[in-house]
């Protein structure tokens, strides 16, 4: 028998091509998903999903979804979206007029969708509630360590040619008691990272995780956490009850030289109260990835223009405050998951299947 060399890669390629061809020829070829506001950094992942689903026609635009641009989705069975701009009654109607009522968000938040109209038109909506807890936890941990080591002060000194050590002395993470408020997906990863640095970690959550409880992380109340923690990191949602949970009263209960970390939501923190704490020296440093007035300011280019928020500018200018414009989530890992999970969800919706993460309507 002749000895034939088989190239496994070539075989895989041919099999994939044949399968793709047969899928394209089959009756399920008429499904189409249209995606709006696709950024450059999302494009490779849209292409990745499309390549892995040759049976679906995928089209996209960088434009936001509006009553006018909705027409671009003509012929699609579902849409994939993500924008700060409201999904108004008119926008939803424009989609429904073309027979499109399956909409998959690439993000979590649904507060900019007209839910009454959604109900009226019978829309099915999905979101992506968990895309990479590590992205946010890692950012919070990096910034915590930077504040403790005063890296911003050092960077400024070095840039000005001042290479002296003192008085810019660091605090080691292992010497800190780190108090984590909210032990959900993100809080738990932050706890692991801080423990990796050697910190003592304590936590508070009204819904205690049984595993963490067994390991003895929980204190009984927020007041207990405030009294014991050198670093306090917030990982809770911005509910009505949590509005300004960090305020004058709670700051007064904290240890002197406390570090406060907010990579969660701006509304959790009374910014004026934190500024008072920074001015008095009670607060050693503040990490701020989210800001209560961030909408319309973050993710914009203010170079050469008048900066619109004096209070924020003052915080940005402080050496012991680390401001980032809500970028904790913004990693390749997270963005890929947001795109792929949204398309997976939409694919299930347009095939009449149960989506992985449907949004409860009404
Ligand atoms: N900066 C960013 O880029 C970014 C990205 C994603 C999410 N987030 C924020 O991170 C938050 C946490 O996300 P997650 O995925 O871990 O959510 P999650 O739902 O998994 O966990 C939230 C936890 O907070 C607890 N909680 C609620 N109110 C509390 C309170 N008053 N005190 C203590 N615990 C309380 C809940 O019981 C829950 O266990 C989100 O709500 C969001 O605001 C920020």
Descriptive notes:
With 362 residues, the chain is an alpha/beta fold. It folds into 2 domains: 31-131 and 333-350, Rossmann fold (3-Layer(aba) Sandwich), CATH 3.40.50.720; 133-323, Rossmann fold (3-Layer(aba) Sandwich), CATH 3.40.50. The chain is built from 13 helices and 11 strands. It has helices at residues 8-25, 43-52, 89-96, 115-121, 133-148, 151-159, 185-196, 210-214, 222-228, 248-252, 271-280, 310-317, 332-350; strands spanning 31-35, 56-60, 78-81, 102-105, 124-126, 177-181, 200-204, 231-234, 258-262, 283-288, 321-323. Strands 7-6-8-9-10-11 form a 6-stranded parallel sheet, with helices on both faces. Helix 2 (43-52) crosses helix 13. The radius of gyration is 25 Å and the shape is globular. The model is unreliable at 23-28 (pLDDT under 50). Nicotinamide-adenine-dinucleotide binds at residues 130, 133, 136, 181-187, 204-207, 235-238, 242, 245, 263-265, 289-290, 326, 328-329.
Topology overview:
Elements: H1 8-25, E1 31-35, H2 43-52, E2 56-60, E3 78-81, H3 89-96, E4 102-105, H4 115-121, E5 124-126, H5 133-148, H6 151-159, E6 177-181, H7 185-196, E7 200-204, H8 210-214, H9 222-228, E8 231-234, H10 248-252, E9 258-262, H11 271-280, E10 283-288, H12 310-317, E11 321-323, H13 332-350
The structure holds nicotinamide-adenine-dinucleotide.
């Amino acid at each position: 028998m002749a000895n034939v060399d088989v190239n496994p890669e070539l075989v895989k390629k041919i099999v994939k091509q044949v399968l793709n061809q047969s899928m394209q020829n089959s009756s399920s070829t008429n499904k189409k998903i249209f995606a709006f506001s696709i950024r450059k950094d999302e494009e490779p992942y849209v292409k990745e999903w499309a390549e892995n689903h040759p049976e679906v026609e995928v089209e996209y635009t960088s434009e936001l979804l509006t009553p006018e641009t909705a027409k671009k989705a003509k012929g699609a069975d579902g849409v994939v979206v993500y924008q700060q701009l409201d999904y108004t009654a008119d926008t939803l109607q424009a989609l429904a007029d073309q027979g499109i009522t399956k909409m998959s968000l690439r993000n979590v938040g649904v507060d900019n969708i007209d839910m009454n109209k959604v109900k009226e038109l019978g829309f099915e909506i999905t979101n992506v509630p968990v895309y990479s807890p590590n992205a946010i936890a890692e950012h919070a941990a990096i910034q915590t360590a930077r504040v403790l080591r005063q890296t911003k002060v050092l960077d400024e000194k070095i840039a000005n040619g001042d290479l002296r050590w003192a008085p810019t002395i660091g605090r080691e993470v292992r010497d800190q008691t780190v108090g984590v408020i909210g032990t959900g997906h993100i809080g738990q990863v932050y706890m692991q990272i801080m423990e990796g640095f050697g910190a003592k970690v304590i936590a508070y959550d009204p819904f205690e995780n049984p595993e963490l409880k067994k390991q003895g992380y929980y204190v009984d109340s927020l007041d207990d956490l405030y009294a014991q923690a050198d670093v306090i990191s917030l990982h809770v949602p911005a509910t009505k009850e949590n509005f300004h949970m960090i305020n004058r009263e709670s700051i007064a209960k904290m240890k002197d030289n406390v570090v406060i970390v907010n990579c969660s939501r701006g509304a959790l923190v009374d910014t004026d109260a934190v500024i008072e704490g920074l001015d008095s020296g009670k607060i050693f440093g503040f990490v701020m990835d989210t800001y209560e007035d961030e909408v319309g300011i973050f993710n914009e280019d203010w170079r050469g223009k008048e900066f619109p928020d004096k209070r924020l500018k003052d915080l940005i200018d402080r050496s012991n405050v680390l401001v980032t414009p809500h970028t904790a989530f913004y990693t390749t890992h997270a963005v890929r998951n947001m795109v792929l999970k949204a398309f997976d969800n939409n694919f299930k919706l347009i095939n009449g299947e149960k989506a992985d993460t449907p949004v409860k309507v009404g």
